[in-house]
Amino acid sequence: MDQIIVQVLNGLDKGSAYALIALGLTLIFGTLGVVNFAHGALFMLGAFCAVIFSRILSLSHEIVDETRTDFLGNPMKIDVPYMHDIFGPELGASIIDWAVPLSILFSIPIMVGIGFAMERGLIKHFYKRPHADQILVTFGLAIVLQEIIKAFFGANPIQTPAPEAFTGSFDFGVLLGFDPLTIMYPYWRLVYFAFAALIIGAVFAFLQFTTFGMVVRAGMADRETVGLLGIDIDRRFTLMFAIAACVAGLAGVMYAPIVAPNYHMGMDFLVLSFVVVVVGGMGSLPGAVFAGFLLGILESFASMPAVVQLLPGINQIVIYLVAIIILLTRPRGLMGRKGVMEE
């Protein structure tokens, strides 16, 4: 039972990333009808926003410490972060330690700006083009962004630690009545799941309960009629593209301590996220979230040593097997609208 609970937690952790990326993909497809293969790159850019902000906070200058000497008896030179000078040693060290959560504030305007620039500068020219053209141009954009990151930050992963308060593991088993130390789970992975749930809930609440969201949902259902009412639906859809980019970026920011950011991490998640979208149903937001967590849990259970020993390699293909089965029996996906992907 304890192994089952651990695999469920691992699945929710993976599913959180899948669901957040798939949610942004579905927002873009549902509003603009664009298949955006650059969405994984937005996830990567969010992770590197955390890297950049951490480096900015860690900028330092060199001073001579007369109280400390080297082996020759000369005063030692030490690096002092500017944060220590501005806020004092204790508060400055705390700000540096919390760089990843604080980088959320840094990444939001950046990701919104990148999303807006992508939509206005490139995507809008492909609205009426075939999906194949959209896939080619956005995939090319993803490669360009990937190579830019590689040129500036190198090919090696960059460690971006979580705050010290969230290092270590939480004794999850005690909450469920197990013996102490039976089910230990990393604090930050639990934080990531809670963060994903918060973002997903905020997006759904925004679409469901705000006037802006209601107009967007109406535009997704019947764009022409909404336009005839005198509403500039194109502008609202552009803002939705920026919001979708921001969601992907925030997913990347908080994932940085789990998987060290590297230039190809966007591609690693992109294909899986598209599978999630197709399984959940193209254009279905609840379907994207449900399929993200479902496939994350299935992948986690397929990675158990007993399962891998019985069926070698099953953990690498289980998601695609599920996608094939669902698409053969229900082409529009689990929660897709009737007629979508069924022609």
UniProtKB/TrEMBL annotation:
Keyword Nuclease: no
TM region positions: 17-35, 42-61, 98-123, 190-216, 236-257, 269-298, 310-328
Example GO molecular function: transmembrane transporter activity
InterPro entries listed in its UniProt record: ABC_transp_permease, BCAA_transport_permease
Membrane topology term: Multi-pass membrane protein
Gene Ontology BP terms: amino acid transport
UniProt superkingdom: Bacteria
Compartment annotation: Cell membrane
Entry GO CC: plasma membrane
Keywords, sorted A to Z: Amino-acid transport, Cell membrane, Membrane, Transmembrane, Transmembrane helix, Transport
Family: Belongs to the binding-protein-dependent transport system permease family. LivHM subfamily.
Protein name: Amino acid/amide ABC transporter membrane protein 1, HAAT family
Source taxonomy: Bacteria, Pseudomonadati, Pseudomonadota, Alphaproteobacteria, Rhodobacterales
